[in-house]
Amino acid sequence: MSTTWRGCTRSTTICAMRWRPANWERAIQNWSSSTSNARARSRQTRRRAMFWSMPPGRACTCSRTARSSILMKVVVGKPSEPTPMIAGLISNAVLNPYWNVPPDLVSSRIAWNVNKNGLGYLKSKGYQALSDFSNKPKVLNPAKIDWKAVEAGTKELRVRQLPGKSNFMGKVKFNFPNSQGIYLHDTPDKALLKEEVRFASSGCVRLEDAPRLGKWLFGKMPQAKKGGVEQVVPLEQPVPVYITYLTAAPDDGRIVFRDDLYGRDAPQMAELGRDARRSR
Fold it and tell me: Across-strand partners of 185?
């Protein structure tokens, strides 16, 4: 949910809405917290290019010197699996990527479904069980795996999803090395992008138009070779990426306030309050 406040553009004139004092207090606090987050990110870079993704806002924006920005919707992490605020460098695109299923989902989703629906579930979804976490693992016979132990979490197992129409990464993912396994990637589930509130991923950022971002990054969207899997296309120069969190942001001349579904504003506002008291 969001609340919109529009200000007049004339000098010092402001169009005031009939808000209760509590509404104004919340608006000012959210704006202070969000602008503090934005300032912190902007101070970290003076690089030639930037890519911004702004959960829980509704857009992901790009800007580059002498190039036009692009704007698109994104799907971000559920409140139970929030997208982190991190920064990094986009180093490459991976065409026709595998989806390496996070270990917690291997037990809670993959193994659970196998135990409930049988081994046919793996084939229907394009999943493979692998021997290890190396770059060249062996594909295991799923019939010889103790799936109950995997579901219980007493046995570790690597599972990946083959490229295809149902692959969670879609047709391309954009890598920026980070310790939390976060990607920017395509998605086969376009219906989620039509929702007003788009907190549905396991932490990664799903892009409305991944090919458009690819074109922005590379000049033109790289094309996969026929039958190729996990084709890595490096960028000549890495591009900074910032994933930030704004519950108050400008939108076409308005200030839009959104619910703090991740619960991050309260600690930030408490810190701002401490800073204000120390500066007196």
Answer: 173, 206
